[in-house]
Amino acid sequence: MKKVRVTTTILAMAFMSLTAMSCKDGKTDDAAMPMSNEMYVESTTENADEMAMNTNQSSNAKQVIADYMILKEALIATDKDAAAKAGNQMVITLKGFEYGTYTAEEQKELKDIITDAVEHAEHIGKSEMDHQREHFKTLSKDMLDMVAITGADGKMYKMSCPMYDGGSAWLSMEKEVKNPYYGSKMMSCGKMEKEIN
Amino acid sequence: MSYVLTSYILRELSMKILKIVALILLVAFIAIQFFPIELNQSDTVPKTDFLLVNNVPESIQKKLEVSCYDCHSNNTHYPWYSKIQPTAWFLEDHIKEGKAELNFNEWNDYSDRRKNSKLKSIINQIKDEEMPLESYTYIHGNAIFSADEKKEMIQFMEQLRNSL
User: Cα–Cα distance between A84 and A74 in angstroms, integer?
Assistant: First the structure.
């Protein structure tokens, strides 16, 4: 009886290690996952291409800013889930950014800005409200620098809140102060600093 | 009579099932040891390393190496149990994520903009005691920041950030 048991155990172990090896092959399938993500990004890039053909060269930046504004609204409303969603959407748009039409120097600067912005947007996608706002501050700086190169499609305003983290800026489509760093706690804290065209 | 018999059979049966489950678990535990582990280890420290490109006081350097470098550099000091599955997988994921977020070995490859972002995050994470992770300090007791160490580290990182 004991002999049978030992044999069964050995057989089972042999079977398991075989399965383990075939699982290893399965693991390479998993590794293909990020690739399918890349493909997704690529397809959005293609969309961006089409958009660029139809409209002007700053349509890319325009889409980034549009996503940023949705994020800003979510922070004004102190809505963590909406902010996370907007952050994740922004990651996709940023990753699909088309650099083709800019000079080499501008491309370098833009790539730097966008790499940084992607990281902040990613964090906003998975963080609590206070962290989302911390990252929003740096993301806003990135957006201001981006707009300085790409130009803004239409009128925008640089707003600032002197209270949050030693003074923090954000971008807005309207002059009226609606504070994304504090929301309803201090909705009208801050001022319109300058107009961006 | 039949009740006694049923309960006897049930008990026997559940013992049998328990034995089978235990055996399966044991076999599975042995089997997963055959999975290859990708160790995060490197003999060389690149020229871009944080400690090489910055003027870092010894106390800060030591703290960074003890508390941060295991997951935020290309070289992890593995304790023996970390080579046993499933612990190794758990660690592998953490190290991968940690390095993607911040790799001190590649510090000088970051642009000033990204250095600024990284420093801001380092400062906030230490301030809020979110780093080092609890799952790490649970085993690495010396990785914990004392109040003084915290203050010193934050001060250093803020100074570095201002000098960018």
Answer: 9
